[in-house]
Each structure stands twice: as C-alpha cells, then as structure tokens.
Amino acid sequence: MSKDVAADIPVAEAPAKRAPLNKYALACAILASMNSILLGYDVSVMSGAQIFMKKDLKITDRQIEILAGIINIFSLVGSLAAGRTSDWIGRRYTMVLAAVIFFAGALIMGLAPSYAVLMVGRFVAGVGVGYALMIAPVYTAEVAPTSARGLLTSFPEVFINTGVLLGYISNYAFHSLPVHISWRAMFLAGAVPPVFLAIGVLAMPESPRWLVMQGRIGDARRVLQKTSDTPEEAVERLADIKSAVGIPEGISDDSDEVVAIARKSKGADGKGVLRDLLLRPTPPVRRILIACLGLQFFQQASGIDSVVLYSPRVFETAGIKSDANSLGATISVGASKTLFILVATFLLDRVGRRPLLLTSAGGMVVSLLTLASALHVISGRAPADGATALSGVSIASVLTFVASFSIGMGPIAWVYSSEIFPLRLRAQGCALGTAMNRIMSGAITMSFYSLSDKITLAGSFYLYASVAAAGWVFMFCFLPETRGRSLEDTEMLFGGGDDAGKEDGHGHTKSTQLTTQ
Description:
The chain is an all-alpha fold. The chain has 22 helices and no strands. The longest helix has 56 residues.
C-alpha cells in the first residue's frame, strides 16, 4: 500500500467531545448484566463448598474436579441454544429464561442428597451460565450508544466479578455451620436473586436491532430515541440497522413490505446463520470469527478459572492451612478481581480495547511466572526454611494476576466479541465465542488437579504463563481497534462492508482496511 493511500485511511477515533452518559441506556445495561451475578456466584461458590462437600459426601478430588469444571461443558448447551433462542423470542425474554434456569439449578444443588443429583443441578445451572454469558453482552451492545458502548458492554463482566466476590463471601459466611448444612446453604443462597432479576428484566425495552429484524420499526425508533446521545444519532443508528437488515430507504415504516423484507432478511430468525459462519464464510467474516474464537480461547486457557476455583488449594500449598484463613484469603481474590475491573470499565472508551488487552496479558504473564517460581521454591523447602515469606509472594502474585485479568482480558473479550460481528450473524457468532470460552474453561478446571499432579502446581502455572504470552502475540497481530465505531461499521475493520466510500456521520470516509492503530 502506498503512503498516499495509507494516509487517507482513517483510524478509529472517539468523538472529540464526550456526550453525557445516557441514563436510560445505563439502566438497561445494569438490568441486563445482573444475570451475570448468578454466573459468577455459581462458579466461585464451588471453591469453598468443595471443602465441605468432600467431607459430607465422601467424594474424591477427582470427583470434585469434575463437578467443579463440568458446569462449563454443560454451559455449551445454553450458549449454543441462546443465539437461536434470542433470534426467535428476543433478547429480553432470553434473559428471563436464563434467570429461571439459574433458580432451578440452585435449588437442585442445594437440596441434592447425592453426588449424582448434584451433577444434575450443575447441568441445569450450566445451561443458565451459557445463556447469560452470551445474551447480556449482545443486548447491551445493541442498546448502548456508540460513545459509551465499551463502558456499558463491560458491565456483564463487572457483575460476574461481583458474583465471584459474593460466592467467596458466602463460603466464609456459612463455613462455621455443620458440614452437612454449610455447603447446601451456600448453593441455596444463589436461588434468591433470580426471582427479582426475572421481574426486573421485564421492565427493560427489547433490543432495537432485534425489533428491526422483526419489522417493528416504530418500536425500534422509540427505543433508539431513549438510548442515543442525540436525536441525530438515533436517526443515524436506525438507518444503519435498516441498511444492515436490507430495508431500502423510502419505504414507509408501517407498511407490510417492511415487515416482509425484515422477516425474509438473512438471519432474522436465525436460519442459515451457522452455515454462513462456519461453512461458507466470506473472508471478512472468517477473520472476525478467528478474532472472536481466538480471544475467547486465550481468555480461559491462561488459567483464570483455575485460580478462581482452586485458590484455597493454592493458598494451602503456599502455607495457609486453616479453612477460615484460606477462605478469608479467597475473599481478597474476589475483591481484587472486582475492584480492578472498574479500571477497564472507565478506560475502555477513552484509551481503546487494544492497549488494555495488551497491558492485561502482559501483567498476567509476569504474575503467573512469579507465582510459579514462588511455588516451585516453596515445594522444595520446609516451612522453617523460609517458605512463609514466599507465601506472601504467592498471595500477591495471585492478586496481581486476577487484577491484570480484570483490566483487560476479562471484560474486553465479551465487549469485543459482541461488537465485531455483522448484525445478522451477531447472536449466533457470539454464541460460538461463548462455546469456545466454556470449552476451554471446562478443560482447564477439569484438568487442574490432574495436571498439577503430573507436572506440579508450579509447572501448571508456568504452562498458563506460556499460553498467556501466546495470547499477547495473537492480540497484537490480529485484533484491530474498535473504539468509536458503530456496530454496523466494525465489520469494515476486517475488510468487509459494501459502502467503502460512504461517510460515517462524523465527516470521515469509511474504510474497509484492517487497522491495528
């Protein structure tokens, strides 16, 4: 490419003057994201509950490992079904369905008389996890104005971390109860929030993009007028969505022709989308799919769920022996994870996705190497030989690792995946990304004890560090910046779109070139 041509290609940029945060869009994002509290709770509560389940049900480490990690494999059912379900019944009712499933799963696990029934409860909860992981970021991205999309779309991860912290607090709060009651109380506490969340979600509007795909242009316009920063942005967003669906200009919004075109639109009811994603993707769609799947792969393969689920075991190896002290230390993990995600929340729309992702992955690599080295030295020493001092290094490394994850890899994997797919492919494309995320999470959590037995605990974290380093290279090479782009515009960053010469509404010519600036 010549220098003259390169100079003409605009890079993604945020508006010069930031608009005030749209409070209606903020309320929608908060309500949509609160399902994610249940997701985080269901994952983290196992870290403490497993201590008491093992004593009460007389089950082995291998059974605990399977029970803890299988929820991620079960969530594949929910994540793959969520894309088609949300295209069929809408984003809002899909969130209500997720809350109902979470409620049922919590009841089954809390009342389970045996390991087999516990596994049934984990299956039900896993389906809810899959639904919540996919639908919350998609809905939020479709409702949010461009100026605050990064902030609002990161909310699901904020609430996941809040759920993780609440799970740890529940572990500590109920640990002094009799063994056969303590772990059941931890699970049953998770059955309360879904009731209120399901009611709250019904007060939300439907996604304007889903409404357009159903031919309900008037309803979509009313939602966009409430969730856009300006009336002009609402008009522009509606025009972009109609163009993406294939509704030509000049047709009355209430005409039967609009409804017919919208319902015949490719992907309006979810039919044929997986074929276009997997079997016959265009080059831009293929690059988008690789970006989404790769980002979700590295988010989990770097070992975050092993730390969340098995931090009591890590702290025990580092020298913290009592249940109370170990569970207390895990609360600090949840607090660090929740606190530092606020950094990403407020910087996403200011500094962009790429800088935070690369900083996050780099911090994870350093933290994992430090943790692995500390554990390696501890394993070769008796406590009297100085392992106690290294215990502090191990704990600090765990806290730094989860903090680094939270400023980038945690929230941005979901933000980025929800904003790069074309409208007709978005729901099921994000569902595939969620499936990859859950497969890797299940593989990591179900193999942690076995892996640490084979290559030691320190060796496991050295392995995770190498994966995180590979993820840094992938993100540097393959992920363009999306800050300041509308959802209908992001496809062009990967070489797609059919309006290369069209202005984007800010006086810039839209580019179809891949840019990583």
